[in-house]
């Protein structure tokens, strides 16, 4: 392989972003990823393991790792922390009972050294469901304001059903990562 | 102090007030960012060079989408890692300067193997993904026990843990569980304004509970803390949460999203949905129609059969919720606690002779049936 093609390869890599999607089981991670990618969302099984989607978003290539959130496999999450540019934490805003679980798992995640540089997007999903908490209420329950002040974060309400809010969330995430990482371009 | 200064400029949402220290903070942050960038750049460079190097051999990677070639590559790497672990066991533990890099290299090989699974998981049958993940977790455990055996420090912390485990067997665990329960019950009060609003059946004993959903109120519905009740739901909802039921019979029309069932015992469920997740269920029968694979976790003695509900207008409801047709998925149960080739001992198919017949809940308005 010639030097030129190697250089091209590096250039290509430079525009890549690694995004890790986590959250409790049933929060809608897989549905969100498929929706963004314009795929059919009508038959989705709970994720055993993980899915990787490579999506071109503006001029960036997003490598999205969608990792299963069932309790048994949450211990695998840490295998995907390395080199994460953006962290997406998905919340089922209609699942009031498990918000405490949700807060605990998020708190644990944010303690992770390897994720300390990652931008955090909290998606308050399932806003289409009557009775769902608003992003503001979710932010309060998760106590997001108390987060380490060096963290770049934002919470956005969305629905993987209607697609509302998804682009707003990912726009912010990609912009934020880009401004940190590709600032020298 | 320094952290505070930095936070002024680094939180994009708060914006930050103007102050003299701002410039200094910016500068500092800029330096830190350059450093971070440099190290990122280095790893990216290394990675891309690595993949560039292997490119000649990975031209075949593109056409690598066959299960058998994946399996043989997986098996090779796995064997080599197992061999490394075995060999490491034979090294003299006192040569710890060599031990560390050896352990690191095994750990890196395991990560590579994991990546291999990830990259191929989109075409692999789910069983292969599961068994590969299981194999990887076994390797990790092997490596962990190797390092705790060989690295003295680890051994010590191991001993430290032992008494804790013994304490777990202590009857005081009961009080712990009680506390947990209390906490769980106590928590919703924090948000009681919402919980009260949220529609559902809660805290009932020995009753027949009937609800018809009409198109305008499609939302979430909760069934919790019921003992010896019969629940009849007609019409569509978007999400259904079921929590802590004993000896209940739950007959439900279609759910357009997912059903989450936790802590049920001695119950019968007849349900239709896009997704069904069952946690901590014991001795319970499920008659299901599902678009995707039902899953169980931490459950035992659960049995499955096809959906068997009828009420006036159910066909329209099922159609509307896109569960008009039998998918056969009621029998494709995944047990997250049993990622192995052999059938999970925790669930089974309900023998036809033991199944209930078609349940008709059409005339549910007037009577309070005995249970
Ligand atoms: N009403 C509604 N339902 C949603 C929405 N997003 C996801 N769902 C439903 O929620 C259920 C869970 O979605 P998944 O995408 O499988 O959830 P997940 O987070 O990937 O779950 P795991 O893979 O187990 O971690 C599915 O039945 C979806 O149809 C939403 O925005 N609104
Ligand atoms: Mg999923």
TrEMBL record, chain A:
SUPFAM superfamilies: P-loop containing nucleoside triphosphate hydrolases. CDD domains: Arl2. Keywords: GTP-binding, Lipoprotein, Magnesium, Metal-binding, Myristate, Nucleotide-binding. The keyword Hydrolase does not apply. Mg(2+) binds at residues 30, 47. InterPro entries: Arl2, ARL2/3, P-loop_NTPase, Small_GTP-bd, Small_GTPase_ARF/SAR. Signal peptide: none annotated. GTP binds at residues 23-30, 69, 125-128. GO terms for molecular function: GTP binding; GTPase activity; metal ion binding. NCBIfam families: small_GTP. PANTHER family: ADP-RIBOSYLATION FACTOR-LIKE PROTEIN 2-RELATED. Belongs to the small GTPase superfamily. Arf family. This is ADP-ribosylation factor-like protein 2.
UniProtKB/TrEMBL annotation, chain B:
InterPro entries: C-CAP_CF_C-like, CAP/MinC_C, CARP_motif, TBCC, TBCC_N, TBCC_N_sf, Tubulin-bd_cofactor_C_dom. Residues 163-184 have a biased composition (Basic and acidic residues). Keywords: Acetylation, Chaperone, Cytoplasm. PROSITE patterns: C_CAP_COFACTOR_C. GO terms for cellular component: cytoplasm. Residues 8-20 have a biased composition (Polar residues). One of its GO terms (molecular function) is tubulin binding. Residues 1-68, 160-184 are annotated as: Disordered. Residues 48-68 have a biased composition (Low complexity). Gene3D superfamilies: 2.160.20.70, Tubulin Binding Cofactor C, N-terminal domain (1.20.58.1250). It is found in: Cytoplasm. GO terms for biological process: post-chaperonin tubulin folding pathway; tubulin complex assembly. Residues 188-338 form the C-CAP/cofactor C-like domain. Belongs to the TBCC family. Supercomplex made of cofactors A to E. Cofactors A and D function by capturing and stabilizing tubulin in a quasi-native conformation. Cofactor E binds to the cofactor D-tubulin complex; interaction with cofactor C then causes the release of tubulin polypeptides that are committed to the native state. This is Tubulin-specific chaperone C.
